Structures are given as C-alpha cells and as structure tokens.
Amino acid sequence: MPRPARFRPALSRRARLGATTVAALVAGTAVFGVGQATAEHSVPRTDKEIPNLTQVQDKIKAYYGDTVTADGEHYASPHSNYARQVRGIEAKARTYLSKALARHDRAGKKAKPAIVLDMDDTTLLTYNYELQVGFHYTEESQDKYLAHTDMDPVFGMNRLVNWAHAKGAEVFFLTGRKEAQRDWSVRNLKNVGYGVPLDRRHVYLKNKENPPAYLPCGATCTTVEYKSGTRKHIESLGYHVVANFGDQYSDLSGGAGDRTFKLPNPMYYLP
C-alpha cells in the first residue's frame, strides 16, 4: 500500500526476502539490510547468489502451515511454526505487561498506560490475501479484498489485546493503511474479536491528502517518522506507551514506547 499499508508493489519500496532472510526471521533473529542477495553483495555477482523464488515461497507456506479449503482459500494453521513463534512472543508480552501495568498503578502516574499496535500482520493476518494475489500486492487488489473480506486475527493477539485493555491499558492501533480503508479496517477488527474502542481517537490510519498537524513531515513522512510521530502525539494526549507491537522494524523505531515486541513476518519488508 502506499506505505499506508504493509504491502508494497513489486519493484517499488516493498522488498521481497531471500532464503537467508526468511530463515533468519523464522528463527526470530533481527535482520537488517533486507533485500540483499547475500550479506556481502547487494548486487548478485552470479545467479548462484539469488535464492530460487519458488523455493522461498514454499518455505513461507511451510512456516505458516498452509491450509487450503475446498474452495481454494489459503489459511495459516494454528499448529504451524509461525503460530508457535507468535504464541511465545505473546507470552513474553503478557508477562511484561502484567508487571508494567502493576508498576504503573503503584506509582500513581497521571498519564494512563497505553499499548500501540500495528495492524497488518501484527493484529490482522494477511496470509490469505498474500496467497490469493501470489505475493504481489497492488492497491486495487488490496482495496477489493478489504472491502469484502475479513482477515483472521494474528493467532492470540485479539485475546492479548482484550486482556491488556481489561488490565487498564488504553489500546491504540497505528497502521500505514490509507484513511480511505478505515471503515473496512474497523469492521474487520470488530468482527474478529478485538473488543476495545475503535473510534478515530484509537485507530490511526495514514492520511496523505490531509496529514495531521502534529506530523511536521506531513505527506512526505517515512514510516518511522509517521509511526514514531503518532506515538509521541498519543503520549501528548496524556498517555504513556508502555509497549509497542509491530511486524516491521520501521513500526518499532523512533522512540515513544518503553518496550517493543516484534512479530514475525517473512512475506515482505517495509523500510
């Protein structure tokens, strides 16, 4: 999406991952310099440095436990390695939040504790869409999909979010999806069990036509500028961001948040 969402058309700002990167992300390690054929050469010297695209896609499908329904729809399996990795991250987040929210209450801070979450592949799983379009995002295909289809929640994230809210955390969604996709996005979150406030004060989408005054970069914001600037805006409203969740490092960079939680995503990279 126009960095509005978490997708990028091929050959634009969205970088596909090679086999080495996929393996590293599956293992849960941080990967930088994504888009490089190898750690040494940003431009492959021979074809041997380029991973086979079909094999990379097969690895991604295996990682997600690709499940195909009778009508040909693809879904990730709750028993997949992806689901297991996500559950491990959620368990760490729950342990951390239990302590952080308790400390916040004891300290009697005026600012209310808050968590900020990205949308695509952090709270809503894009796997079915990606398979439907053959890992080739276009704005048109995404609009068509979101208008009529609800993405599944990332395994367990709806329960984690609802639990954190019940424990006293204000919940904010901060996505690069474009403002025109607000109604579809809110509908999707409600339908898959996110039982938290989803009004305009709690759901932030990217508005390039009318960027908010609190972003000095306006319509030219990078992902990091847009997301960190919005988190700082949230804090200016009387909240303290105790945790920030995202599937891209650009979701998590730039400050304004005590701790970050990186969700796995080997399907695409957003700078």
Task: Produce the secondary structure layout.
Layout: H1 19-27, H2 53-64, E1 67-68, E2 74-75, H3 81-107, E3 112-117, H4 127-132, H5 139-148, H6 157-166, E4 170-178, H7 182-191, E5 203-206, H8 223-236, E6 239-246, H9 249-252, E7 260-262
Parallel strand pairs: 3-4, 3-6, 4-5, 6-7
Antiparallel strand pairs: 1-2
Mean pLDDT, rounded to whole units?
88
Based on secondary structure, the structural category is alpha/beta
Largest sheet: 5 strands, parallel
Order of helices and strands: HHEEHEHHHEHEHEHE
Distance between the termini: 13 Å
Total beta-strand segments: 7
Helix content: 25-40%
Strands of the largest sheet, in order across it? Answer: 5-4-3-6-7
Strand content: 5-15%
Catalogue the unreliable spans: 1-39
Rg, Å, rounded = 18 Å
Count of helical stretches = 9
> What overall geometry do the principal axes of the alpha carbons give?
globular
Molecular structure report:
The chain is an alpha/beta fold and 271 residues long. Helices cover 38% and strands 13% of the residues. The protein has helices at 19-27, 53-64, 81-107, 127-132, 139-148, 157-166, 182-191, 223-236, 249-252; strands spanning 67-68, 74-75, 112-117, 170-178, 203-206, 239-246, 260-262. Strand 1 (67-68) and strand 2 form a beta hairpin. The longest helix has 27 residues, at 81-107. Mean pLDDT is 88; it is low at 1-39.
